[in-house]
Each structure stands twice: as structure tokens, then as C-alpha cells.
């Protein structure tokens, strides 16, 4: 069952079984709607954090959007060595994805792709490794948002894939909350994969971006919580003119385990509002991580969330926030607060 963008009314995501073919996955490798028009000109660097303007200048040069420096009347200044990739390291909400999308739009390239880390690994799963290499071989640019290595399998796949693409001339741009030589720390036995991780990081010039969450909401602030009556009214009102979802939190979380994360974008296709009843804290980390991936897709699609029960910023217990996925959970909290207040 799929969702039509022209429908109105209420659907239950836990009853949907979205399908996504490899060709559709490739076609979706473009910046999400909120960054469809992102440019360097619209990136507002915070003067309180000089690294933001410095990053913008460096990335404009990387994308060929800034004029080259001149070295005199009859000679050119020697350009510094430029690595095949740039890696934007910084906290959530400092504009990394905006800058990544700006690179995508500014770089004059015939073949370029933009996707989240999970979208690329999902594509490998759908098409097979060698077919994915052939698909991207010769591409001018690969943009990878939220680069995270959560397990050894993903580490090996992505390091091999990027190494082959760099060799064939593809340029890389990535964002993450973790410096490339620290990928995998606290998540698995990273020492067993140091050679692969370091080989990958050698392809990137790391650019640090400091700052505070541009949404100006502290991560310990609370997401909006509706009473039962308020929730019913909000869903009913939205359903008169748009398609909205209405699911018990536990039902949706259980269903996410049966849907590959690459298909979450299809799960919310056509929706205008996401409704969650009876929200409660997670007790299982795998379920929590799947929910994080789901919220990433909801946030990229700029969908407001209406929820009742536990405040959504409190669904990740302290023991999870203290673990190796802390930054991933904090990013989700930031996005949940923004989405419930939208």
C-alpha cells in the first residue's frame, strides 16, 4: 500500500508496507525539500563563531563558487593541495546540511548525488556492492549527510566504496558530528577497523564548524505535548484538507522494525502531519535507533508532529544518552522539539 500526495484523511503508518525500487532510491538522491534552494549566499554565518564563515569560504572554493586568488600579472598563485573530499564536523543545528546542499547546487557537475549515509548503505543492500560501484563510477560529486559508522559491516562497505570512487575521480563531501578519525568510537571494536577508518579519513579535508543550534532551542527543552482532546482536534482538523497519520507510538515503533530504513521516506510520502499517541520512553536501543532514522526523514520532509503522552524529547533514557550513540540521540531530540513546535 502506498500513500497518494493528493489524498486527504487519516492513515495509520503501522498498516503501510511501502516498496522502493533501486531506481527510485537513486532518483531520490537529491537534497531534501528544505534544502532544495540552499546556496552559500543564504547561509548566514554567525559572527560569534568565525569558523562558520571560514568553512563557508573554504567550501565555496571547493565547489568552484569563489574566484581563484591571483598571483600577479604573469603568474598564478600556487594553489594549496585540495583533497578529493571535504568533511564538515560540528554539532547539530550549525548549518552543516545547508552547506552540503550548497556544494551540491554550486558545483557545475553532470552527475552528482546527495543522500544520507543510510541511503547509500541501503542502496548497496538493494543493488549489491559491485552494481553500486558501477552506478556511481564516473560521478562528479557524492554528498553524504550524517556520515556515521554504526557497525563493522557499514564501515567496510563505505570505506571500500569511497576508495574506489575517489580513485575514479569522484569528489566527496560529507557531514557528521564525529571527526573522521573517531568514527565508530564507543559503538563497536573500532581498533579492529582502524586501518580502514584512517584510510577513508585520509581522503577528506576536515573542516570544523562551531556554533549553537540555529533553532535556538536547548536540547533539554521540551517538545510540545497535547492533551487527548487537543490531539484529537488537531488530527481531525488537519485531515479535512490534507493527509495525516495517526498511530499509537508503540505500534509505529514495532512496525519500523519490519520496514527497511531506506523505505521510511516512502512511508511518509504524501503526509502533511505525523500524529503519535501514547508516546513512551524506549527500553530497546535498536528500536530507538530506528526511530531516530525515521525522525530524520520526517524532519527532512518538514512534517510537523502532533503527539500526546511522554514528551518526545524524553523518549531516550539517560543510559542511552550516555552511550556511544549520544550525538545521534541529541540530534533527534533537537529535531523532535522543532517538529512538534512547527
From TrEMBL:
Superkingdom, taxonomy of origin: Bacteria
Coiled coil regions, renumbered to chain: none
Gene3D superfamilies: P-loop containing nucleotide triphosphate hydrolases (3.40.50.300)
Swiss-Prot/TrEMBL GO biological process terms: cell division
Recorded name of the encoding gene: zapE
PANTHER family: AFG1-LIKE ATPASE, ATPASE N2B
Designated name of the protein: Cell division protein ZapE
Keywords on record: ATP-binding, Cell cycle, Cell division, Nucleotide-binding
GO molecular function, one term: ATP hydrolysis activity
Pfam family, one: AFG1_ATPase
Organism expressing this protein natively: Microbacterium allomyrinae
Record carries keyword Nucleotide-binding: yes
GO cellular component, one term: cytoplasm
